[in-house]
Amino acid sequence: MRLILLGPPGVGKGTQAGFITRHYGIPQISTGDMLRVAVSHGTPLGREAKRYMDSGGLVPDDIIIELVKNRIREPDCGAGFLLDGFPRTVPQAEALAAARIEVDFIVEFRLDEDELLARSEGRLVHLPSGRTYHVLFNPPRVPGKDDVTGEDLVQRADDRMETARKRLEVYRLHAGALIGYYLARAGSGEPAAPRYVRIAAAGSPAEIREQVFAALDARAVVPMD
Length: 225
Hints:
Helix content is 45%, strand content 14%. By secondary structure, the protein is of the alpha/beta class. The chain folds into 2 domains: 2-26 and 79-217, P-loop containing nucleotide triphosphate hydrolases (Rossmann fold, 3-Layer(aba) Sandwich), CATH 3.40.50; 30-75, no CATH class. The longest helix is centred in the C-terminal third of the chain and has 26 residues, at 161-186. The two termini are 14 Å apart.
């Protein structure tokens, strides 16, 4: 099973990605993580990407595509993968398709803007692991402490209200076109077209998780556990 998750910042994609990858036995592929590893290991792609990063520019899509292609050849991707952070634009989605990196499902999470902002404002993060919590919707067992390590949780600068509004504006610039692209592909009748799943992301993480599993399983996806 190969998936892409869509949805605005704060909608809970990271939490649901964790549920999906554990339940179906697939890795979460982060393009940001792949770039950092390639740069730190000094691979040819990493050296090329570093030139752009050092100059403050964006790493070109063709480099990202090559990193993805290399990553999905690894054994842990045999049952599929979940792409994290890519594509963000229609040209990137088109580049994925042109490289024959096809996906089975597009899962779009939707939530009212006021609740999105409320979620962002209350979100807490354990920076070393990336684990996320929310003071109302997904609180840690001990206030302000990570459930696993007991270390302090922090509120990231981009989760503060004004920054969260700006992130939503940036998302809207590209999201409509990207959603339209994948909806059109899903309805095209192409043999390799992904199936499009839309999830109402109101409710607890567990309730949303069950919606996601039901939607994926209903389309003949067999869980690994």
